[in-house]
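User: what does the whole thing look like in 3D?
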Amino acid sequence: MATATLTLAKAVNEGLRAAMERDPKVLVMGEDVGKLGGVFRVTDGLQKDFGEQRVLDTPLAESGIIGTAVGLAIRGFRPVCEIQFDGFVFPGFDQIVSQLAKLRFRSQGKVPMPVVVRIPFGGGIGAVEHHSESPESLFAHVAGLKVVACGNPVDAYWMIQQAIASDDPVIFFEPKRRYWEKAEVDLDATPMPLHASRVVRPGSTATLVGYGAVVKTCLDAAVAAEAEGRDLEVIDLRTISPLDLDPVFESVRRTGRLVVVAEAPSEASVSSEIAARVQEACFHSLEAPVLRVTGFDTPYPPSRIEEDYLPDLDRVLDAVDRSLAW
Amino acid sequence: MSDPQDWTPATADPGLRRPSREQVVAGLKATVEGGPDLVQLLTPEGERVADPRFDAWAADVDVDALQGLYRDMVLVRRFDREANALQRQGQLGIWVPLLGQEAAQIGAGRAMKPQDMAFPSYREHGVAWCRGIDPTELLGIFRGTDHGSWDPIARRFHLYTIVIGNQCLNATGYAMGQKFESKVGDGPDAEATICFFGDGATSQGDVHEGFVWAAVYDAPVVFYCQNNQWAISEPLERQTRVPLYRRAQGYGFPGIRVDGNDVLACLAVTRWALEECRTGNGPVLIEAFTYRMDAHTTSDDPTRYRLADELELWKLKDPIERVRVNLVREHGVGQEFFDGVAAEADELAARFRQFCIDMPTPGPERMFSEVYAEASPPLEAQEEAYLAYLAGFAAE
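Assistant: Here's the predicted 3D structure for the full assembly of 722 residues, as structure tokens:
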């Protein structure tokens, strides 16, 4: 059995490499992804091994990255675009919404759009403005796109390959503050489906659901709660669009209590969508309202106060307390 | 290529770095006739004039071929007029007329080889015609039964792009793909891409980015700008200070202005440009200098923003009339030919009209189909619930 200890960044790198070896139509394109290997080194070494025609250092233009990827996909390629930071995706938003998301529908299935847009997202690395955002709700709202977020090296390795293999456009969120966290990855394993949520810690007192970087926060909270005799179930959402809420419904029907955790602002968000659907599906099982622990409805703050913005262990436990006290 | 300052009137203060608004307008007005760089093979009066650079690219156009171009333009204009009428009669939600741009589109469309790819905006009915898209295939977009019905990959004619300028990047990416697949070179299977957009689109960032990307990747793409002088109500001087074809200089590739109402010149220049691209010398910018003789769309009212005199002036440069005159005077083509084309045009219009009226409206399940290639259970649940809701009425 082949296993490797990989950081999350290296796991994406190895996943990209495997996909490129498997299919010569897979291209990697973005700013600084070639010689430099990306600002987070996620594409490190790929240009050296696959050449400049498969790993493209592009001009600094995000609409250009997405717009040419759309054209390359029409030609039969499978481009994987890197957006350097979450806050830089917006110049490419028009191409994502107007072309990438809609071409399959517009053409009644004649033009598939197998394009992956990788976006390092979220805060916690002490960065300047536009480098710490969580824009996933904006993409989840767009019909035609699929949206996923990996939270650990194992998922990163498999999910990037599954996203590339998909004939749908996938917005692929990578939790940048977890890039350097390591895990053992079984390279021969059979991965679970891309659009499936997973219980990462079983429990019975209350349910926590999150995605991306906050999954670890939830797991830490569950460990802390254990000391108080509380047995929290933690679900890693993994897929944001389409949502796979069956594991959440099943859990809530057992625990009666749900806390949704997300870095993004709460208003009109993935967390509000989950709350709405859970009350629809589990109305009679709920012992308390669905509570949310999220970023605030503000622009992302200066980094010296970002710890106040990001959901942390204490805020998660506080929400659990409020849920249980209901 | 002349110096960018050439077009500034000689009376301009040499110390003035930024031309006044009046000077800008004067400079643009000076190009109403297309200016000295305009490539023209057929004058508005129908006279064939020599062009040492581009004659060779139209040398094979004999009287038969010229008759073919005439026929193309007449047929396209005829169904365009029919579509306008269908909109007025409530059969189409909207129509985007190409009246006046027949030469610009037929010249470019007929310059393409089967293996070339075209990315249209939404007014390219003439290019569609050249790519073998039946005019009836265009109707669904404007009747509201589909967003584009043909297979763009198989037909080598992308779906209409409505967001202004988006297609310039998509075309550039496609052309990069042609290059990556080693389809650029001297071989008979060499390919190029042509991207259509208007003068208004040149202000869009995506057109700029398309120019940058195409240049740095040597992409085999012809950027074909139909400058029809108006972006809905906004005249060219709201988009640019320099004639559009000169912008190419700044990106490092050739820019050519062609008489967009001269089908022979459009054919010759586009043939040259596509061949430049196929052989690895792309990209190329062509500005087809033409005029939108009708409204922007059937929802638009040009009397609010432009003078009727302007249209009368451009009618003297009609793209079809000059070919007719040339066929009669220089080739002795008789009335029988013109009557035959007119009759064929009427037959096409009648078929087009009947097809439009008979078009079925799709069922609501169309809304849910082909949103995704792979399963989306929440969407499937939505569809199921809505169809069950509708079925509830049927059962009553």
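In plain terms: The first strand of chain A starts at residue 3 and ends at 7. Chain A has a mean pLDDT of 98.
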